[in-house]
Design a protein that fits this description.
Blueprint (H helix, E strand, L loop, with lengths): L8 H11 L8 E5 L5 E5 L2 E8 L2 H7 L10 E6 L8 H4 L7 E2 L3 H9 L3 E2 L7 H7 L13 E2 L1 H13 L9 H9 L4 H9 L2 H31 L2 H15 L4 H14 L4 H9 L3 H8 L5 H16 L3 H6 L4 H20 L3 H15 L4 H4 L2 H22 L11 H25 L6 H34 L8 E2 L3 H10 L7 E6 L4 H13 L3 E3 L16 E2 L6 H10 L6 H4 L4 H6 L2 H7 L6 E2 L1 H4 L7 H8 L4 E6 L1 H5 L16 H13 L2 E5 L5 E2 L4 E2 L14 E4 L9 E3 L12 E5 L4 E2 L6 E2 L5 H4 E2 L1 E6 L2 H4 L65 H7 L2 H6 L5 H16 L3 E3 H8 L6 H7 L11 E4 L4 E4 L1 H8 L4
Parallel strand pairs: 1-4, 1-5, 3-4, 6-7, 8-11, 9-13, 9-14, 12-13, 16-20
Antiparallel strand pairs: 2-3, 10-23, 11-22, 14-23, 15-21, 17-19, 18-19, 24-26, 25-26
């Protein structure tokens, strides 16, 4: 006899509704099946479900012959399939036992009205109708489909959510987290129905998810999901390796790595998309997945495929191999810097960063330090291919040129050097290469410092000439006063960041830019045409607060300030002749640390002063200077670490619609790169880590310079020796030191910044609009190449028909120099050619003239946007006295009264205003 079905109340109700659509003489119904007693109502008539176990029980529960009943009865009969005794069957509706259709039962079970054809005949349908699966949920529609039935089944039987079957990666993630597979496989071994369901499940999963779905199901059954992933990892690595033998070796190892799954693994790999699948399933942040990768590597190494492991973008050996390759390319670059070797270095950096494990096994600080190392390499190449500083001229010109270059890129350079010095965690090969690179950079930087220090002394002895730099005592005259003369609507907050180096300033500006709050503004010092709006500011020496800050506030330099200390800075500021002349009787107030305290809040007096109508308010912030006295063992990156008083001051200035001049009295050098010169500063001697007093007849050492005679010196001292070498200290250094005469100490940062909306609320003052802080090309890892040397155009001469005797020999005409032709045009010039705005700008200009201008522009772009006039003339193939004419012809680029290319006659330089160019023609770098 066929096994009787388990009928639910819904099954019974649906069958009663179907059978009694037409009248029957009897309200007694027999259904083949088993179930539980129950009651329901249909069309106003009550029905009772009555299970029976045998004929006697059925007879006992039938009403007596002739007895009238007001309700219907459904008898569940599982002990007879077709026939009942005649005296019993004649009393039942239809005179027989009815069988409930599977379609109807399935529909009733899931709350559907229709069932897909053939679904009820499947093994899965028989299993769910057997009543052994609990927790089956109703469907949401009216039709029960094959997929709908499977989804309800796997969720009820195994807890597989519907989202786990949305794609191969979701499916693999679920099977990795379930341990129910082996138990299901064992159950199938002794149950024919389950075995049939399993076969159907494999077919359905393959239709839904393809070979990956089958692999996931089979691996789940065997409990080998991680092994299957390891096999896929090695197959992906083999695909990227050129050795056919290794590829064949790994393919043969699949069966030993994932026993019983070799065909499924190969099928899933052959279907494509394995790299993306692994990326979606594995997380290198997970300790479990890291163990999986280690085991996969052990399989490769143990099976003789070590080379394959080193080529993998997932396995630890692959990361180690990429670090070693980076070290090799870095050493090759240091030995022979060139665009080609730098390209190899950058490619190796990118290759290492692309390894899946890189972010997991290397901290973010290490990754950032690596990027800084790449920038240092680009800087070295830039220094080699760009024009060198002129060796001729005055003895002090080098100080001006070096200060200008340092102001444009020195902060970025020192930031990168400091970051690379703190690099940890890499393999020894890479660390050795990075140290070699850093040594090469430091050697160039030290040479700059030495040349600058010597030229600085000559500059001071000559009376501090030239408009190319600003002595710190001129800041109030040429910056503060000139800015405020632009209109009564301009108000200024002068924030003196004591001891802030250019590196720290760049970091502070980076943080403000990331917050989208404050940026440098367009105003520039009148008559100055440098890349930055404010010329380099040179501190007074020795670079001590007592000396240099006093000069800034007083507006004059006086060697006596060094003996007076900082107590009189407020009086000096109040008497500053340049600012006093401008503001009249208005109070000139300066607030010090004792007034602003610490933390985010300002005292009311400071807030009221900033909110007042005073044209200028000054505040001294000692946060950086005090940090310099800290431990060498703690590094501070101001692009990530807020300076709390500065944050509060900027918020107050924002509300008061003030621009802010961020300026330092001097910079500093990092103490962690210094060694102590033993005996340089004996006990009881006057001096500091970076300077010392000299006795009569005592001479400075090779790493020092004798400061000018007009500089401050301690009483009784014959002079002061200041260190220019940033790797030397007179005593054990702190986190940062100053007092010496390196570029980092003597070039004080000065940036005029404003909130992004300032120009729109104070009378449409275009000079208050924000600009992006210019970054050196090497900071963006742009490879700078030498332009081709100028080619001479040989004049074409027509040979005379007869040779004539010349009484006076005539020299051949000198060939005219043609503009250089670079091997490849800079990307910026290429994009400019494609700009519609540029085409409109040069409409009507002869094409040869446009080509000349673009060639000259390419020379400037390739040199980083600024060149000495002599170098520009040489690169463009013109005479030095023709530079002015060349720049004038490049005026076709100008618009709205703003020059794109400027000739700084006093400074003997040609400068490209790149920001204006980008904005004017709508192009990007």
């Amino acid at each position: 006899m066929t096994e009787s079905p388990l009928l639910s109340e819904a099954d019974v109700r649906l069958e009663v509704e179907r059978l009694f659509r037409r009248d029957h003489r009897s309200r007694l119904l027999a259904l083949f099946g088993r179930g539980q007693p129950g009651r329901f109502e249909l069309d106003g008539l009550a029905w009772e479900i009555i299970p029976t176990a045998c004929e006697l029980e059925l007879r006992s529960k039938l009403p007596a012959p002739g007895e009238k009943t007001s309700s219907g009865s459904v008898y569940l009969v599982d002990w007879a399939e077709d026939a009942l005794p005649l005296d019993v069957s004649c009393r039942l509706a239809g005179g027989r036992i009815y069988h409930v259709a599977r379609d109807a039962r399935l529909a009733a079970l899931f709350g559907a009205r229709q069932v897909d054809p053939g679904l009820s005949s499947t093994a899965l349908a028989r299993l769910v109708l057997s009543g052994t699966i609990e927790g089956l949920l109703k469907i949401t529609g009216l039709r029960l489909t094959r997929s709908g039935l499977w989804l309800r089944f796997v969720e009820a039987r195994f807890g597989i959510p519907e989202r786990a079957l949305e794609g191969p990666s979701e499916w693999l993630r679920w099977v990795r987290g379930s341990d129910a597979g082996p138990a299901f496989a064992r159950a199938c071994e002794t149950d024919d129905l389950l075995r049939a369901v399993r076969r159907e499940a494999l077919d359905w999963i393959e239709e839904c998810l393809g070979p990956v779905g089958v692999l996931g199901f089979r691996a789940w059954e065997l409990g080998l999901v991680d092994k299957a992933l390891q096999a896929l990892l090695l197959l992906v690595a083999a695909e990227q390796h050129p050795d056919a033998y290794l590829r064949g070796l790994v393919s043969g190892q699949v069966a030993s790595i994932a026993p019983g799954l070799a065909s499924e693994v190969r099928a899933a790999y052959a279907a494509g998309g394995a790299p993306a699948l692994l990326e979606a399933v594995l997380s290198v942040e997970s300790a479990e997945d890291r163990r999986l990768l280690d085991e996969a590597e052990q399989h490769a190494v143990g099976g003789g495929a070590s080379a394959l492991a080193t080529a993998s973008e997932w396995l630890p050996a692959g990361h180690k191999a990429r670090e070693a390759a980076l070290a090799e390319s870095l050493l090759a670059f240091v030995d022979a810097p060139s665009p080609e070797t730098l390209e190899a270095v950058l490619a190796a950096f990118e290759h290492l960063s692309a390894h899946r494990l890189d972010r997991a096994i290397r901290r973010s600080e290490h990754v950032e330090a690596r990027r800084m190392a790449a920038r240092l390499a680009a800087w070295i190449l830039g220094r080699r291919v760009r024009p060198q500083l002129a060796e001729h001229g005055t003895t002090w010109q080098a100080a001006l040129d070096l200060a200008r270059r340092y102001a444009e890129e020195g902060g970025f350079l020192d930031w990168a050097r400091q970051s690379v010095r703190g690099m940890r965690g890499a393999g020894e090969e890479l660390m050795v290469a990075v140290r070699r690179l850093l040594d090469a950079v430091d050697a160039v930087a030290r040479a700059d410092d030495q040349r600058f220090a010597q030229a600085y002394v000559a500059w001071v002895d000559a009376g501090k000439p030239s408009s190319e730099v600003l002595p710190i005592e001129h800041v109030t005259k040429r910056v503060v006063a000139q800015f405020l003369k632009g209109g009564e609507h301009r108000r200024l907050l002068l924030v003196l960041m004591d001891g802030m180096s250019y590196a720290a300033a760049v970091q502070v500006l980076q943080r403000l830019r990331d917050q989208r709050r404050w940026s440098p503004i367009a105003w520039r010092v009148p008559g100055w045409n440098g890349q930055l709006p404010i010329p380099p500011v040179l501190a007074a020496v020795p670079t001590l607060t007592e000396v240099s800050r006093a000069a800034l506030f007083a507006g004059v330099a006086d060697p006596r300030f060094g003996d007076q200390g900082t107590d009189r800075d407020d009086a000096r500021w109040a008497e500053n002749p340049h600012v006093r002349e401008l503001v009249g009787d208005e109070p000139l107030t300066v607030f010090f640390r004792r007034d602003i305290h610490a933390g985010h809040a300002l005292i009311d007096e400071v807030k009221q002063a900033i909110a007042s109508d005073h044209r200028v308010v000054a505040v001294v912030v000692n946060a950086i200077d005090e940090q310099l006295k800290g431990s060498l063992q703690v590094a501070v990156d101001y692009s990530r670490t807020p300076i709390l008083p500065l944050e509060a001051l900027l918020s107050a200035a924002d509300g008061a619609e003030r621009a802010v001049l961020l300026v330092a009295d001097h910079g500093h050098v990092a103490g962690d790169a210094m060694r102590v010169a033993a005996g340089r500063l004996p006990q009881g001697s006057t001096g500091g880590a970076r300077w010392r007093a000299l006795a009569e007849g005592e001479q400075p050492q090779a790493d020092e310079v004798l400061l000018p005679r007009t500089s401050w010196k301690p009483r009784g001292a014959a002079g002061v020796a200041a260190l220019w070498d940033t790797s030397v200290a007179n005593r054990a250094p702190h986190y940062g030191e100053h007092g010496g005469l390196s570029l980092a100490e003597a070039v004080a940062p000065a940036f005029l910044i404003g909130p992004e909306w300032l120009d729109r609320v104070v009378g449409e003052d275009v000079e208050l609009s924000c600009r992006v802080l210019p970054e050196p090309d090497w900071w963006a890892l742009k490879i700078i190449r030498l332009a081709a040397p100028p080619a001479a155009i040989q004049p074409t001469q027509t040979a005379p028909t007869t040779k004539q005797l010349q009484l006076i020999p005539v020299e051949p005409a000198k060939s005219a120099l043609a503009p250089p032709h670079a091997p490849s045009e800079p990307d910026l010039v290429v994009r400019l050619r494609q700009s519609k705005l540029f085409a409109q700008q040069v409409a009507g200009v002869l094409k040869p003239e446009i080509e000349r201008v673009l060639t000259w522009l390419g020379v400037l772009v390739g040199a980083g946007g600024s060149m000495t006039a002599a170098d520009f003339a040489h690169a463009c193939g013109v005479r030095p006295h023709q530079v002015g004419g060349v720049v004038a012809r490049m005026g076709v680029l100008n618009a709205d009264g703003f020059a794109i290319v400027e000739h700084d006659v006093a400074g003997r330089r040609v400068v490209l205003q790149k920001a204006r160019l980008l904005s004017q023609f709508g192009v990007t770098e």
